[in-house]
Design goal:
Helices cover about 45% and strands about 15% of the residues. It has about 270 residues and is α/β, with parallel strands linked by helices. The protein is globular, with a radius of gyration of 19 Å. The N terminus is likely disordered.
């Protein structure tokens, strides 16, 4: 896969490059803590959409350039670019195909997604980290939903993601009171996978990425799908979904390799197919 669109420095950019089966996506606007412009959000949609049908990929890594992960959508730039307020209905027409589509893709893509977070993860940046399958953060990273401080209601999936991850009471603290949450608390609450000291951060990220990329990709994707389905399903519905997913995963080469490795008492060598 080629690099993301070559955007101007003021607009920022989203770059993507492959390392084996891992697609590394970088939010690149460090002068603004990687806050997302319209162009960056569209680039994310395009890169993730392409990745969804690239069967040679095994895992996705999303990170921010510089000292921060992402300070959210750049509402200041969006609302003052031409000195005019957006027309009525602009958000309703645009956002489902832009910011909200990014969250949906990260949550549903049939590949494991890992976000590595330094510094701030705020607004859409926070929700991007929450939507990922795994988020590893430095111990001094901060997660923040600043919507009340800005005078508007939450978006980008925060009202769906937070209650499921940390419960309604803590979600209220973050969304209604605007409480900032440090990475250590975020990990203790189950909001993210791990908080790591700065000295161990890169190793923790790379070890987890390698483990995901070496896994049975089809089974991982189907398990991810079943977890998402089960959030709004009954037990019976989830059991039925698991049955269909099991039928599919048992037909993969990785399933046969897993059985053979078990018989031979060795570590399986999955190929992602």
């Amino acid at each position: 896969m080629t690099d993301g669109a070559d955007l101007t420095e003021a607009q920022g950019s989203v770059t993507a490059h492959r390392e084996g089966g891992i697609l590394r996506i970088t939010l690149d606007r460090p002068s603004r803590r990687n806050s997302l412009t319209h162009m960056m959000i569209q680039s994310l949609v395009d890169v993730l959409s392409d990745a969804a049908t690239d069967y040679s990929l095994r895992a996705i890594h999303i990170r921010g350039a510089g000292d921060h992960f992402c300070a959210g959508a750049d509402w200041v730039a969006t609302n003052s670019a031409d000195g005019k307020r957006p027309r009525t209905g602009d958000l309703v027409r645009r956002v489902p195909h832009a910011a909200h589509r990014v969250i949906e893709l990260v949550h549903t893509i049939q590949l494991p997604v890992l976000c590595s977070v330094r510094g701030w993860a705020a607004g859409m940046g926070c929700n991007l980290a929450l939507a990922a399958d795994f988020t590893v953060a430095t111990s001094d990273a901060v997660f923040w939903e600043p919507f009340m401080d800005r005078g508007f209601s939450p978006d980008s999936g925060s009202t769906w993601l937070l209650p499921r991850l940390i419960g309604v009471a803590r979600a209220r603290r973050m969304l209604l009171l605007g409480e900032k949450v440090g990475a250590t608390d975020a990990a203790d609450w189950g909001m993210i996978h791990q908080a790591a000291p700065a000295a161990d951060f890169e190793n923790a990220v790379e070890e987890l990425l390698a483990r995901l990329a070496d896994g049975p990709t089809v089974a991982i994707g189907l398990t991810k799908q079943a977890l998402g389905f089960g959030q709004g399903a009954t037990l019976g519905e989830s059991l039925t979904q698991e049955l269909f997913n099991l039928e599919l995963s048992c037909r993969t080469s990785d399933f046969r390799e897993g059985l053979e490795a078990f018989r031979q008492r060795r570590t399986p060598q999955f190929r992602g197919r």
